[in-house]
Amino acid sequence: MHKGSIIGSWDLALSHSDLALCMITFKIGAEDLYIKKRVSLEFSAKITVFIMTTYDVPTL
Questions:
Q1: Taking the mean position of all CA atoms in its chain, how far away is CA 25?
Q2: Contact between 32 and 7 (Cβ < 8 Å)
Q3: Contact 43, 23 (CB under 8 A)
Q4: What pLDDT, on the 0 to 100 scale, is given for residue 51?
């Protein structure tokens, strides 16, 4: 699945940031509800939109 690959790329690029943790949990499933609390709702929404609208690996 392409999204899985992108999530892995984000994890490597962002190291131990909350964003990386949040990205990983999108792939896992139910766990995302717990990790999302670590970032703002607005930030989580932007991440979700990005995942749904592109397969490009972001350059941060």
A1: 7
A2: no
A3: no
A4: 56
Angle at 31 between CA 15 and CA 6, to 5 degrees: 45
Query: DSSP letters of 1-54?
Result: -HHHHHHHHHHHHHTT-HHHHHHHHHHHSTTHHHHGGGS-HHHHHHHHHHHHH-
Q: Give 60's contacts (C-beta < 8 A, 6+ positions apart).
A: 13, 14
End-to-end distance of the chain based on CA atoms, in angstroms?
23
Instruction: Give which of 17, 35, 14, 18 is closest to 26, Cα–Cα.
Output: 35
Q: What is the tens place of the pLDDT at every residue in 6-34?
A: 444 444 344 445 555 555 455 545 444 44
